[in-house]
């Protein structure tokens, strides 16, 4: 059966990025590193939280955009803070509503695993609107504040 593997293009830091991501997410691994005849890294195969990825050092001219992003669902504010801060480290840039770009320009969404429930699960359109409005004011999402908005506080 065919499979789909996200394939990321880096100028020349594919292995560095893959190792960073693997260190960030427990249970992740570098699976293989293909080298060119001169010993430079060409393609890195790695697994993050059970999902396989490939990254290539393909040279400049193909920057990442937020048209493709990776969403990380977390259960607690502490985990959200840890992942958010790590992805922003050394030159990342926050945007809005839980989105950021890491130092390599890869777009990530760091979201509470209960976000769907907060946005739609109550069946109360006013509560859903409050959660949406609260989220629209945030860069890094604040789980207690989102829950408070859902409750009408």
From TrEMBL:
<dbReference type="InterPro" id="IPR028973">
    <property type="entry name" value="PhnB-like"/>
</dbReference>
<dbReference type="InterPro" id="IPR029068">
    <property type="entry name" value="Glyas_Bleomycin-R_OHBP_Dase"/>
</dbReference>
<feature type="domain" description="PhnB-like">
    <location>
        <begin position="3"/>
        <end position="111"/>
    </location>
</feature>
<dbReference type="Pfam" id="PF06983">
    <property type="entry name" value="3-dmu-9_3-mt"/>
</dbReference>
<protein>
    <submittedName>
        <fullName>VOC family protein</fullName>
    </submittedName>
</protein>
<dbReference type="InterPro" id="IPR009725">
    <property type="entry name" value="3_dmu_93_MTrfase"/>
</dbReference>
């Amino acid at each position: 059966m065919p499979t789909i593997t996200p394939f990321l293009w880096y100028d020349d830091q594919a292995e560095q990025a893959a190792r960073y991501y693997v260190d960030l997410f427990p249970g992740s691994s570098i699976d293989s590193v293909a080298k060119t005849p001169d010993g430079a890294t060409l393609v890195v195969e790695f697994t993050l939280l059970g999902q396989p990825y490939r990254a290539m050092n393909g040279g400049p001219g193909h920057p990442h955009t937020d048209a493709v992003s990776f969403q990380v669902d977390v259960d607690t504010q502490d985990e959200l803070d840890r992942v958010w801060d790590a992805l922003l480290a050394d030159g990342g840039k926050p945007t809005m509503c839980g989105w950021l770009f890491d130092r390599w320009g890869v777009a990530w969404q760091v979201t509470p695993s209960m976000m769907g429930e907060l946005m739609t699960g109550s069946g109360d359109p006013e509560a859903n609107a409050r959660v949406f409005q609260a989220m629209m004011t945030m860069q890094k999402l604040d789980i207690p504040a989102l829950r408070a908005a859902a409750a009408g506080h």
